[in-house]
Design goal:
Strand order of the largest sheet of chain A: 2-3-4-1-5-6-7
Number of helices of chain A: 5
Strand content of chain B: 5-15%
Radius of gyration of chain B: 16 Å
Order of helices and strands of chain B: HEHEHHEH
CATH architecture of chain A: 3-Layer(aba) Sandwich
Structural class of chain A: alpha/beta
CATH architecture of chain B: Orthogonal Bundle
Radius of gyration of chain A: 18 Å
Helix content of chain B: 25-40%
Shape of chain B: elongated
Oligomer: heterodimer
CATH topology of chain A: Rossmann fold
Largest sheet of chain A: 7 strands, mixed
Low-confidence stretches of chain A: 1-6, 47-58, 190-194
Mean pLDDT of chain A: 83
Shape of chain A: globular
Number of domains of chain A: 1
Number of domains of chain B: 1
Largest sheet of chain B: 3 strands, antiparallel
Structural class of chain B: mainly alpha
Strand content of chain A: 25-35%
Chain lengths: 194, 127
């Protein structure tokens, strides 16, 4: 059926927007793209995930998780999709699917609650997924230098850190551009094993 | 452990998907999504019309209507305001009956080439 159909399949790149609860993920996705809620209906399994028996599916609890989802159309053949990762720990199981094939991630940080972004940083580091850290400069929050944040997060020197304002389209664009340029720089680099 | 789903086998649903029964999904039943398959970034396109029987559910037909041009699974779910898991089940039905074609994204860890990345940077700057 390929013949006769002129519509090409676009190249679609996936970027994750991660960080702690309330750090501005929704705001950032909304600032740079047309944001829409995406519902995922997930089965909440208990600890015995490895021994799942399909016959037990009907007895499992399910939950609906709403994710932020935005699309930036670069041109007809190239689209960028943004996915805000669920901010609550119990939704970790969603991350692997979201991270699959992702170009990279933006980890948003709030210097008042810097530890909230540790799990996201760990997650992407361990999987070798390129990421940048955007320090969302909330009103009233004390400003820290980029190097102070780098030190507090124990980040590798090549991981870009930017001060940003998640409400600002221009600022959000700059964070995304920094990520894509970071990915480009890493091209050809062997994936490091930590 | 290996448990084949009932009915026609297709590779897009793995063991984790569980039994796939159409009304079960669209009538509010729950299904475990096939992780890593039916990727959110996969694109689907409806096939030529009038081939085979009409799909049974209005949601199936809504998907076909929305997929006249290539559309990403995530966009479909958002456009139709349906949970991704339900959309995946419906897409499985449509795939099994040949009503849609599916284009999986490139495998994980295969980054796009520099030209694409440059186009993204330039495109973002121009936003």
């Amino acid at each position: 059926m390929d013949s006769g159909r002129s519509d090409r399949i676009p190249v679609a790149l996936k970027i994750l927007i991660a960080g702690g609860f309330g750090v501005g993920k929704t705001t950032l996705v909304g600032a740079v793209s047309e944001i829409r809620p995406l519902q995922t209906e997930e089965v909440l399994t208990d600890a015995s995930v490895g021994t799942d028996d399909l016959s037990g599916v009907e007895g499992k609890q399910t939950t609906t998780v709403a994710m932020d989802f935005g699309r930036i159309t670069i041109n007809d053949d190239l689209q960028v999709y943004l996915f805000g990762t669920p901010g609550q720990d119990r939704f970790w199981f969603l991350w692997d699917e979201l991270a699959y094939g992702a170009l990279g991630a933006v980890v948003l940080a709030d210097t008042r609650r810097l530890a909230d972004c540790f799990p996201s940083v760990d997650y992407f580091e361990r999987r070798g997924i390129p990421f940048v850290v955007g320090v969302n400069c909330f009103d009233g929050a004390r400003r820290y230098s980029v190097e102070a944040v780098r030190s507090a997060l124990d980040l590798d020197p090549d991981v870009p850190i930017l001060l940003c304002d998640a409400r600002s389209r221009q600022s959000g664009k700059e964070v995304l551009i920094a990520l894509v340029e970071h990915v480009a720089q890493r091209q050809g680099d062997p994936v490091r094993t930590h | 452990m290996r448990t084949d789903p009932p009915g026609p086998h297709h590779e897009w649903l793995d063991d984790e998907a569980g039994p796939v029964v159409r009304p079960y999904a669209v009538t509010g039943g729950r299904v475990q999504p096939a992780s890593g398959k039916f990727d959110l970034m996969a694109f689907v396109v409806a096939g030529p019309p009038d081939e085979g029987p009409q799909p049974p559910q209005p949601e199936h037909r809504a998907i076909i209507a929305a997929a006249q041009r290539p559309v990403a699974v995530a966009d479909l779910a958002a456009d139709l305001d349906l949970p991704v898991g339900v959309v995946r089940v419906l897409l499985g039905d449509l795939l099994a009956t040949g009503r849609i074609s599916m284009y999986e994204p490139p495998a994980s860890r295969q980054f796009p080439d520099d030209d694409i990345l440059k186009a993204v940077v330039n495109g973002l700057r121009a936003l």
